Amino acid sequence: MDIDGKVAIVTGAGAGIGAALGRALVGGGARVVLADLSPTVQDVAEELGDSAVAVTGDVADPGVIDELIGVADDRFGDVHLYFANAGVIGASGLEVTEQQWDHSFEVNTRAHIRAAQRLVPRWVEAGSGYFVSTASAAGLLTQIGSATYTVTKHAAVAYAEWLSITFGDQGVGVSCLCPMGVETAILYAGRDSGDRLGMAATNAVLSAGGVLTPDTVAQEVLEAVAAQQFLILPHAQVLEMMRQKTSDHERWLRGMRRYQASLLAD
């Protein structure tokens, strides 16, 4: 999809990949509604001028999603693209509370489902639309430390695949972003928590591949949208890791256990 002249919604846009996507979209001629829990999203919108407007709120809340779409419709016109980018890392270990599980599912998975339920029927009727899901390499591989992040990001990948299969021949494009280390606050959340598994998780990502800037990732996302490419892997080595996992799952699991042990021993 050519983004020039299009209207997009970007969640998690107060910083990091979301803010970078907002800048890249406006730079390509799009108009954007930016959303985040943090009031910093207002600063990002002000930076982008008349082509952007910000909404502060929980993008897993159905009412907030409706508000985002309504603001886009009123300010810019029909929504052509939705970037479900907001995410949370979640706690480490086995003793995660029900509330923590619910929060991770709400933000990392259900927020995507709710947005698609509202927009995909409109896009099918119009014959055009695009949904971009920010998942993670953890959604293809795993995440040392956080079960909630691993499980909900796997679910996000699965839902994006289902959307593409179900509606891809009806004009709805779908891409799924699965990076490893990106220079954002979420990258260091585990280390800053002081929890051994959380610190190991951060160290695992830092040691597995280079840390990219959000602007670099945003540019790759828009290139994938232009090419109608489903899987976006800014870290090329993730593809080889996926091949190793699927070619010999038992060996991969043993290797991951050894890797985790080495990180915890540091």
TrEMBL record:
Give one GO term, molecular function aspect: oxidoreductase activity
- InterPro entries from the entry? NAD(P)-bd_dom_sf, Sc_DH/Rdtase_CS, SDR_fam
Keyword entries, A-Z? Oxidoreductase
Q: Which Gene3D superfamilies match?
A: NAD(P)-binding Rossmann-like Domain (3.40.50.720)
One Pfam family, please name it: adh_short
Q: Does the keyword Cell membrane apply?
A: no
Q: Write out the similarity annotation.
A: Belongs to the short-chain dehydrogenases/reductases (SDR) family.
Q: What is this protein called?
A: NADP-dependent 3-hydroxy acid dehydrogenase YdfG
The species this protein belongs to is Yimella lutea
Provide the organism lineage as a comma list. Answer: Bacteria, Bacillati, Actinomycetota, Actinomycetes, Micrococcales
